[in-house]
Amino acid sequence: MPIKAFASKQLCFNLTSIPCKSSSLFFIHCPFSAFPNPLAETEKNHEKDDFSFEPSNSCKISKPPQKVKVEVQAPPIADKLFKFASKSGSYKRGDSTFYSLIEDYANSGDFKSLEMVFSRMRSERRAFVEKNFILVFKAYGKAHLPEKAVELFDRMVDEFRCKRTVKSFNSVLNVIIREGLYYRALEFHSDVVNRKNVMPNVLTFNLVIKAMCRARLVDRAVEAFREMPAWNCEPDVFTYCTLMDGLCKEDRIDEAVSMLDEMQIEGCFPNPATFNVLINGLCKKGDMARAAKLVENMFLKGCVPNEVTYNTLIHGLCLQGKLEKAISLLDRMVSDKYVPNDVTYGTIINGLVKKGRAIDGAHILMAMEERGHLGNNYIYSTLISGLFKEGKSMEALNLWRKIIEKGWEPNTVVYGALIDGLCREGKPFEAKEVLSEMGICGCEPNAYAYSSLMNGFFKNGKSDMAILVWKEMAERNCSNNEVCYSVLIHGLCEDGKLKDAMMVWKQMLGKGCTPDVVAYSSMIHGLCCAGSVEQGLKFFYEMLCRDSNSQPDVITYNILLSALCKQGRITRAVDLLNNMLERGCDPDTITCNIFLTTLKEKINPSQDGREFLDELFLRLYKRQRIAGASKVIEVMLQKFLHPKGCTWELIIRELCKPKKIHVAINKCWINLFG
């Protein structure tokens, strides 16, 4: 994307348009505040207008035969301009002139010129005013130079004889906080209040509480809030909103909600933003019932829900999987004359896709476009990915064609979704063409796109092509992350190229990448298939010492359990199963079938697997791991291995819990009369 040029407020004059014959007329038409630095602009004027300017008794205009490049850099405030202007009698140099200069240079971010102005003002004993310093503080904030703002704040009194007030204090404090330097902001606040005798006001406390909440020092923020009356500062609605938001982000929702009553008792009335903060916190926690009550409370307090309120509630409902209610709330939002935005539609479409209803998400997109809203890259990538995952490749490709026909320029994420989808459909060569098109369109493929393409070729039995994609990624200097290495290692192991996989493994470790659970499981599977079960177990024990992304999952356990059982090492397999249960990993149907086959074929005499699975169910049930226990019962019923009477009793008790009964009855009524 082209970078927009940033122009200063200095005005450029075409001297041919000024019918003057003397310098006095020139200065009448060109006041100093509008033309602060003519000599510094000489080079620009030469290149732009092909004119040269020499300050003399007459305006000498000459058009050179070619552009002249001037190497001399004039000072930001031209001495000649000061001298000739005052002699002409058309202009009197005063404080306002310097103030105009400060404003112009601050707006353009010309800090060198600002220092020259301050230096001249000091040498001429000019009066410095605080509002000019505040302009410079804001300029330092835009330039991301917070320490320069602090330095200038310290110089205000001693060097420039300008009294500091809470206004300049708050300005510098805000600059530091905007840069995310929260601890530095608190240090600066403490120093100014304790040593420089500047009295804080409500805005100061709001900024400090904001910094504390952002730094996750919520208890200190509450203390600062309670100290406000001692400084003759009454909290306003922004104070309460900031503190409530901090409490919600620390999962202290009840304390945040209680502050709503407190602020009303203190005579501070909440606005929609106050309720939105609390509603957002409750929605993220999944407490939609309390969120709905807060909306009712809004109406009672005379606050009307706005777009943020609706978007927050819709997002919360989608997180809870209550998509029908989210869609009905969207209809109500439209009926209340509020215009849903991309966030609203994107949230609902994403929720539908996660529920396996990508087609419904496409219908929402159509309704969105009918109302004059164009989709964005997030929505398009979500839908394309969802349609492919549901096996609706034709619909996904039709959506892609419509995007291109509309003239929309897909980004890397949308391209990545298309490449991944084509690979899922077993069309890696078509996906490779899409990858090539990305480069032509100026959209560089990322690691995700390359990983999808490699995976597609491996699944298609084209391991050589997958390795070529890996090499192309390296040639384009695309950084290889853990996912890329996992895909390559998994593909090589599946292809029986264990030595190559081991080389890639060592390369990954050498580059400081931590193998994830997929990479570890792939290596363990490759080693077990090669008969090196003990080496696979070494990798497994190494996993246990890694972080959460590398912890073994049910797939890892199943690989090792199957390998041990095939070798007849039943006792070792049972020990590993016990380790699995202790680490909170539930068995699945594959785990159950591994042991059923082993007990039937490897044990002499063969044993009935009913007692084994029955005991496994009881162990899971006693630990309240109902999902895992349900998988065991599912396998038993499929294999006609009837549970014991006491086991059936536990199953019926679990099914007959009041909430589950109501859910089951409601589902029946919907199926019958819905």
Mean pLDDT: 83
- What is the multimeric organization of the chains shown? single chain
Q: Report the end-to-end length measured between terminal Cα atoms.
A: 52 Å
Low-confidence stretches: 1-74, 84-92
Rg calculated over all Cα atoms? 36 Å
Structural class, from secondary structure content? mainly alpha
Helices, by number, come to: 36
Work out the strand percent.
under 5%
What CATH architecture of one domain do you see? Alpha Horseshoe
InterPro entries: Mito_RNA_Proc_CCM1, PPR_rpt, TPR-like_helical_dom_sf
Pfam families: PPR, PPR_2
Keywords: Repeat
Family: Belongs to the PPR family. P subfamily.
How would you characterize the overall build of this protein?
- Helix content is 68%, strand content 0%.
- With 674 residues, the protein is mainly alpha-helical.
- The protein is globular and about 105 Å long.
- The chain starts with 22 loop residues before the first helix and ends with a helix.
- Mean pLDDT is 83; it is low at 1-74 and 84-92.
